[in-house]
């Protein structure tokens, strides 16, 4: 097992603080500090970086972020049982780790951390997609974060990087790829976690582009994509009925055939349609 600091091994930390994993909080811990160091490095060197980590748990990834040189880490953890273990890490890296005991869905990291920051998290699966969608749809672009390095169930990771033409392609792919470069950086088997989840996982890395790949009004794009994929087996003219008085004409104005299905429309086509509707 890698020695990245001289804090106790994670198994001992978990035993000492009685951190039995709770399913309701999506707790699947990473105990291999060699692996957490690899995740920390996915987006390149962390020297001098400010990092938001959601759900540090017993702190395996937190320790890797700090050992890899992050200047400031804001760790937001909902489970108060983890706080003593995290306080030990904070004491080991004076002035570099701030722990906030809160629900990540309820707080604004900007109240604690100066932008831009990177987000690096082994997310709780029950709130992961919701957090990603929030990060992808901020009020302004570019967002306050530079990059997102996030653990997801493999199936969700595949939806983020999916290309047109398959079942995985949908709202997540479009929102992710419209304004970010997105790639799967690592794949992890269930045994990488304690306790092991039922499915495989993957780390996705998204980098915010300075401007969208194609122009489109964000709220209209979100609405049309949500509606289009809500009835993904229907032709666009039926799935998008009611969005415009003459939806077939609007689709043609955007260069799309009204008989196409949502999963056949490339990102550029959705943006053209959002412009035609907006
Ligand atoms: N980062 C640790 C690791 O890699 O071992 C723990 C990852 S575990 C998959 C998810 C963590 O998120 C747990 O510690 C859980 O308590 C925490 N969590 C769950 N829901 C949360 C929420 N809404 N806000 C903040 N933390 C949350």
From TrEMBL:
- What does the UniProt entry say about where the protein is found? Cytoplasm
What Enzyme Commission number(s) does the record list for this chain?
2.1.1.182
The answer to whether UniProt assigns keyword Ribosomal protein to this entry is no
Catalytic activity field:
adenosine(1518)/adenosine(1519) in 16S rRNA + 4 S-adenosyl-L-methionine = N(6)-dimethyladenosine(1518)/N(6)-dimethyladenosine(1519) in 16S rRNA + 4 S-adenosyl-L-homocysteine + 4 H(+)
Q: Which domain of life is it from?
A: Bacteria
**Which residues does the annotation say bind S-adenosyl-L-methionine?**
28, 30, 55, 77, 103, 122
The Swiss-Prot or TrEMBL record describes its family as follows:
Belongs to the class I-like SAM-binding methyltransferase superfamily. rRNA adenine N(6)-methyltransferase family. RsmA subfamily.
Described purpose of this protein according to its UniProt entry:
Specifically dimethylates two adjacent adenosines (A1518 and A1519) in the loop of a conserved hairpin near the 3'-end of 16S rRNA in the 30S particle. May play a critical role in biogenesis of 30S subunits.
Name of protein:
Ribosomal RNA small subunit methyltransferase A
């Amino acid at each position: 097992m890698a020695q990245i600091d001289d804090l106790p091994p994670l198994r001992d930390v978990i035993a000492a603080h009685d951190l039995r994993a709770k399913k309701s909080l999506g707790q699947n811990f990473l105990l291999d500090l060699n692996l957490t160091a690899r995740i920390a490095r996915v987006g390149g060197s962390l020297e001098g970086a400010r990092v938001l980590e959601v759900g540090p748990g017993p702190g395996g990834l937190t320790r890797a972020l700090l050992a890899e040189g992050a200047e400031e880490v804001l760790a937001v953890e909902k489970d108060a049982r983890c706080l003593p273990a995290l306080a030990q890490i904070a004491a080991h890296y004076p002035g570099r780790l701030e722990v906030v005991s809160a629900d990540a869905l309820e707080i604004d990291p900007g109240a604690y951390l100066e932008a831009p920051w990177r987000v690096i998290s082994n997310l709780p699966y029950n709130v992961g997609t919701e957090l990603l969608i929030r990060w992808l749809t901020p009020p302004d672009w570019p967002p306050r974060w530079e990059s997102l390095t996030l653990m997801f169930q493999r199936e969700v990771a595949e939806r983020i990087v999916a290309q047109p033409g398959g079942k995985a392609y949908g709202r997540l792919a479009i929102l992710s790829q419209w304004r970010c470069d997105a790639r799967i950086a690592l794949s992890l088997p269930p045994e990488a976690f304690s306790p092991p989840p039922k499915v495989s996982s993957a780390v996705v890395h998204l980098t915010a582009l300075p401007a969208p790949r194609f122009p489109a009004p964000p709220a209209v794009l979100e609405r049309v994509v949500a509606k289009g994929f809500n009835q993904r087996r229907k032709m666009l003219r039926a799935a998008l009925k009611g969005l415009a008085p003459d939806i077939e004409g609007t689709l043609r104005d955007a260069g799309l055939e009204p008989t196409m299905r949502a999963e056949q429309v490339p990102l550029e086509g959705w943006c053209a349609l959002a412009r035609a509707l907006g």
